[in-house]
Amino acid sequence: MGIFSFNAIPLAFLLAIISGAVNACPPSDREALLALSSSLKEPYLGIFDSWKGTDCCSNWYGISCDPTTHRVTDVSLRGESEDPILQKTGHSSSGYMTGTINPSICQLDRLTTLIIADWKGITGEIPSCLASLPNLRVLDLIGNSLSGKIPDQIGNLQKLTVLNLADNKINGEIPSSIVQLSSLKHLDLSNNLLTGEVPANFGNLKMLSRALLSGNQLTGTVPISISNMSRLADLDLSRNKIQGQIPAQLGKMKVLATLDLGSNMLTGEIPPAVLGSTGLGILNLSRNSLEGNIPDVFGPKSYFMALDLSFNNLKGPVPGSLSSAKFVGHLDLSHNHLCGTIPVGTPFDHLEASSFDSNDCLCGNPLKTC
Ligand SMILES: *[C@@H]1O[C@H](CO)[C@@H](O)[C@H](O)[C@H]1NC(C)=O
Ligand SMILES: *[C@@H]1O[C@H](CO)[C@@H](O)[C@H](O)[C@H]1NC(C)=O
Q: For labelling, which of 73, 104, 246, 348 has a CA lying 20 to 30 Å from the CA of 325?
């Protein structure tokens, strides 16, 4: 222990250090945090001004420790939220931080939560050594300017439940190891520069309830294995370059409530099973190259808060069964090649002409009479 090297220090001060040290974080954890702070710059709020003293478990902003071992378990720094430090400064409700995430963070080997989120200016890569933190449950680096790749070994994080890397500049492919994250519930990689395909065995992520991959440059097809995901409630692959047909099996998923495949390059017809799914509340297939008729498969259990099929090559009539749907909130069938009489019924009472804009020959309320 380094205590004996303090013998030049006044006795009272030394005693204070020793008694404090009983409950203090280990010097190695403290040093790892100081190395982290030395490679970050946060000029407005003074967050790192609180990172002083020997005990990094006490009053270091954003740091929490295990009460028994005094090892650092949480690093939680959010630049945009209800966070009190943002409120009390009277600054705008968003912070700004630059610099990089120092790999020294990986020396905190009891870390369960790492949140360095919404600071906009943090650059550099995600340290690949994060994939060797065995207890990590939450990794949330949303809203920075991180670049480079997702660590190849990310799949080692067997306790990880939340992986949020959205709104950065991360490139490369989704590592194939990602499907090994057997505890993962929430995956958000939206709005990055990811290329390549969604791994074919993505459906191995059995615990996943939200898969948000929108706003990248993903190619390939929608993996059929996704239909095997019994807890998936929210799938967003919008604004990518995904091709091929929509797997009909998606219509059989138990809890899928939101399916957003908008702004891709999907072709073929809309599978009847998907449109007729009674669990889907939000379905967005807008801005693809879908063709054929809209399947006439709606019924009294159809309940759509939003149904957006706009900007495709759909033809034929607006299906009559849509008027028997229990609820259709926002409907957009515009910019297709539909033709015929718009059905009447409660789901149509509140719809505006814009829902049917730019088709070939639709007529009836809310458009002109036939
Ligand atoms: C779905 O899961 C079953 C059982 O785990 C497996 O045998 C099958 O290959 C999976 N299907 C797809 C398309 O991945
Ligand atoms: C559906 O997706 C398109 C393209 O991604 C988007 O522009 C549109 O706003 C979405 N529709 C709804 C109702 O959210």
A: 246
> What is the residue type of 216?
N
Going by CA atoms, what residue is nearest to atom 2 of ligand 1? Answer: 228
Q: How far is the CA of 309 from the centre of ligand 2 (A)?
A: 9
Residue with CA closest to ligand 1 atom 12:
225
Alpha helices in the chain (DSSP H): 11-22, 27-38, 84-88, 272-275, 346-349
| DSSP conformational letter for 219 | B
DSSP 234-268: EEE--SS--EEPPPGGGGG-SS--EEE--SSEE-S
Residue holding tokens 């539909």?
A: 338
Which ligand has the shortest distance to the CA of 224? 1
Tokens at residue 303, please? 């309940």
CB 51 within 8 A of CB 61: yes
The first and second tokens of residue 58, run together, are 């006490």
In the reported structure, the alpha carbon of residue 131 is separated from the centroid of ligand 1 by a whole-number distance in angstroms of: 27
What value, to the nearest 5°, has the Cα angle with vertex 13 and ends 10 and 16?
A: 150
Query: What are 276's two structure tokens?
Result: 């007729």
Give the CA distances from residue 4 to residues 11, 13, 208, 231, in Å, rounded to whole numbers and listed in that order: 12, 13, 51, 56
pTM given for the model? 0.91
Calculate the average pLDDT of the chain. Answer: 92
Task: Give the three-state DSSP class for 326.
Answer: coil
Q: Dump pLDDT digits (tens) for 86-129.
A: 555 555 567 899 999 999 999 999 999 999 999 999 999 999 99
> Among 17-31, 66-80, 150-164, whose mean pLDDT is lowest?
17-31
Q: What is the pLDDT of residues 296-336, one digit of tens each?
A: 999 999 999 999 999 999 999 999 999 999 999 999 999 99
pLDDT of residue 19: 47
Which residues, at least 6 apart from 176, have a Cβ–Cβ distance to it below 8 Å?
A: 155, 199
| Cβ–ligand 1 contact at 347 (below 6 Å) | no
230 in Cβ contact with 207 (< 8 Å): no
> Using CA atoms, how far apart are residues 192 and 86, in angstroms rounded to an integer?
26
